[in-house]
């Protein structure tokens, strides 16, 4: 553990705080993921970890390696950009799939699909059927 | 002194992340429906990415970063494919 002793105090304290913040946010999101009741509530909870949680941990990693190697180490931005792009896609796909499954089973918990309008001019204004 | 502070905070962060992974695993095993299990898998791999990054800070090597990047890539593909499967019943139409 010699490399951690080389880190000056002004960098070590933010690294430690950012790591603890990110891990706490991930834990809070996962606890919410276990405790919330319906699937549509549960979709929201883990995003605490996927946005600011992983952002804090990546920032801590960037700061640590930048100070240790005395040059700008920014390759963690790859993971950050990738997470920012992919998280809404996966959660949107999952929520749509869950909505489709609930509707096809005739569940009362979800609103019914909007009626399909064919040829009407106002078809552009309504949301497309899922 | 800074090494001690950093070692303890990394250790605590790893414990918190493992607890988060345990919550996600609980949802994967116990989820009432298939979409809960897929969402649990998604949460599990995000937490695993963070755990690998903390290992990287602890050991000072960039190998862990590449493993974390691969987990993030494969996890996205897996979740998208599973969501597609839940919606359509097949992955490639």
From TrEMBL, chain B:
The chain crosses the membrane at residues 6-26, 38-57, 63-87. One of its GO terms (molecular function) is sodium:proton antiporter activity. Keywords: Cell membrane, Membrane, Plasmid, Transmembrane, Transmembrane helix, Transport. It is found in: Cell membrane. InterPro entries: MrpF/PhaF-like. It holds the Pfam family MrpF_PhaF. Its main location: membrane. It comes from the Bacteria. It is a multi-pass membrane protein. GO terms for cellular component: plasma membrane. Belongs to the CPA3 antiporters (TC 2.A.63) subunit F family. This is K+/H+ antiporter subunit F. It comes from Azospirillum brasilense. The lineage of its organism: Bacteria, Pseudomonadati, Pseudomonadota, Alphaproteobacteria, Rhodospirillales.
